[in-house]
Amino acid sequence: MYNRPFRPKTMTGICPEREEERINGLDRMATSIVAACVPFVRPRPSGLSWIVEGCGGHESSLKGMTDSEILSKARELGWSMRREGYRDELVAHTFALVREAAVRSLGLRHFDVQLIGGLALLKGLVAEMETGEGKTLTATLAASTAALAGEDVHIITKRLSRST
């Protein structure tokens, strides 16, 4: 086992406890070329679009429910997910429930792309969204579903203030 003697240093760089690697010009150029090509060859997650149709199927039945009925349905879905896991049908029903709750409480309805982003987050994938596309609203889908399933959930957002 290699033991390096402890040498106190000044705090610099991203990880001050370890020395930064020196990157030569050729490596830097290769990294730039690869980074420029990634958007063209990155595979698109095509297996996530089913959530849009799944949510749409439950939407009409939720519109006629009262708030207390929606709450009891949420509890029922939570227990089902704790027993059976994140089955597609349960996730779609939960997303539709969260979508209806957002419409009633906030007046905001999740767009289809936000449903797909919420499913990506729930599956542990990274969902990249542009400014103004509703990242916080998207996070409510995955966070609510995970919380109903009994998982610990934390959401951290930052609202940028606009100076006039």
Strand tally: 0
Q: Measured on Cα atoms, how large is the radius of gyration? A: 22 Å
| CATH H-level superfamily title of the domain at 47-148 | P-loop containing nucleotide triphosphate hydrolases
Globally, the shape reads elongated
Q: Helix share of residues?
A: 55-70%
In what range is the share of β-strand residues?
under 5%
Runs with pLDDT <50, length 5+?
Answer: 4-11
Mean of all residue-level pLDDT scores: 82
Order of helices and strands: HHHHHH
| Class computed from helices, strands and strand pairing | mainly alpha
Quaternary state of this entry equals single chain
Largest sheet properties? none
- CATH class bucket of the domain at 47-148: Alpha Beta
Number of helices: 6
For the termini, the CA-CA separation is: 59 Å
- CATH architectural category of the domain at 47-148: 3-Layer(aba) Sandwich
* CATH T-level fold name of the domain at 47-148: Rossmann fold
Explain this structure.
The longest helix is centred in the middle third of the chain and has 18 residues. It is elongated, with a radius of gyration of 22 Å. Helix 2 crosses helix 5 and helix 5 packs across helix 6. The protein is an all-alpha fold and 164 residues long. The chain has a domain of 102 residues: P-loop containing nucleotide triphosphate hydrolases (Rossmann fold). The chain starts with 24 loop residues before the first helix and ends in a 16-residue tail after the last helix. The protein contains six helices and no strands.
